[in-house]
Amino acid sequence: MIYQVLARKYRPQTFSEINGQTHIITALKNALSLNRLHHAYLFSGTRGIGKTTIARVLAKGLNCKKKITDNPCRKCQHCLDIENGTSIDLIEIDAASQSKVEDIRNVLDNIQYYPLHCRFKIYLIDEVHMLSRYSFNALLKTLEEPPNHVKFILATTDPNKLPTTIISRCLHFYLQKLTINEITKKLQDIVNKEKIKTELNSLTLIAKSSDGSMRDALSLTDQAIALGNGKINFIDLKYILGIIDEKYSLLIFESLVKGNIKKIMCLLDDIEKNGQLCENLLIEILSWIHHIAILQILPDSLPEEKKKYLDILNNLAISVSPSDIQLYYQIFLLGRKDFYYAPCNRTGIEMIILKAIAFHPKVTESYKTIQS
Question: Which residues, other chains included, contact 163 with Cβ-Cβ below 8 Å and sequence gap of 6+?
Fold first, then answer.
């Protein structure tokens, strides 16, 4: 049996299976149940959050043999054909590869013909922002007043590139990134079904690294399972993501506050030996600075997983003024912009840390002593 990647195997097939996007799902289900159907829908949002999935579920709701419904039966031939990608009346167009005006005109030439089997002929245009200006112009009139048997569903990752004339003719839904909890819950459900051994902190790390994208999270899960020989190992996962042990980033910031340059260089040597000297170190330091800034205002606000470092963080929150914390945060935040222009990762990170140390009172006094 051919292996099917998790992102395809566990693609939602009904509205109830879709993670997040509650406001959109509710609106679409109500429209289907009340039979108040728009002729053109536009789904926008970042990659891997369910635009095409929602579009296909909507297509099933519109064309289910039973009736127009917010709960497709998934048993009739129409639903099965849409699920299998073999429906003649669901025409999926990849605008990235079919962006020319000739491609759109070929679609428009056939739009007058009634669907062969289903209730509606549905045109699903993915990455619609990739269409050329002439293609958009050719589409305008038909998109405004299509035949009664035609529905348009457009999907894009960049709605800002769409002409306002196109957006105004559609019912526009903006999909939000999924939260860490939503992704973690879904991953937990999938690994249980797949009988994969793992820990909650591994799934949480995957969820954090996926930046709100369920597809990215599932691809990373596939990679972790392959590396872990059938199980998800937290150590392997950190290696895949290039994530350093969080204690290193905290010790570097603590040494920075103390003005201990020698210790910082030793810590960087240790990190470099593990091949993990990259931008993630700067991100980790920024995260610690954020926790310290919050502790200065709300002493009991530290997340449970960070409480093992409570003593160090409390000492830093007391010893560093809020204004200095903000200064350090800005230095590391802006340093990320310059990081990619550095000759190498080590040089980039060292110069950002040295810039932060330059504002340390102890270092400033030493410099004045040398000058005098």
Answer: 136
Tens-digit pLDDT profile for residues 311-341: 999 999 999 999 999 999 999 999 998 888 8
Q: 121 - beta bridge partners? A: 150
Domain boundary among 174, 193, 224: 174
d(CA 70, CA 83): 16
Which DSSP helix (H) or strand (E) runs through 124?
A: strand 121-126
The CATH number assigned to the domain holding 285 equals: 1.20.272.10
Domain presence at residue 114: yes
Query: What tens digit of pLDDT does each residue of 166-183 get?
Result: 999 999 999 999 999 999
**Residue 368 within a domain:** no
CATH number of 131's domain: 3.40.50.300
**Domain interval for residue 215:** 180-241
Select from 241, 273, 294 the last residue of a domain: 241
Which ranges in 123-245 belong to alpha helices (H)?
133-144, 164-167, 180-194, 200-209, 214-227, 234-241
Give the 3-state DSSP-derived string for 42-99, with helices as H, strands as E and coil as C: EEECCCCCCHHHHHHHHHHHHHCCCCCCCCCCCCCHHHHHHHHCCCCCEEEEECCCCC
Instruction: Examine residue 371 and state whether it is found in any structural domain, yes or no.
Output: no
Distance CA 91, CA 88 (A): 7
Q: What is the dihedral of CA 88, 92, 97, 103, to 10 degrees?
A: 60
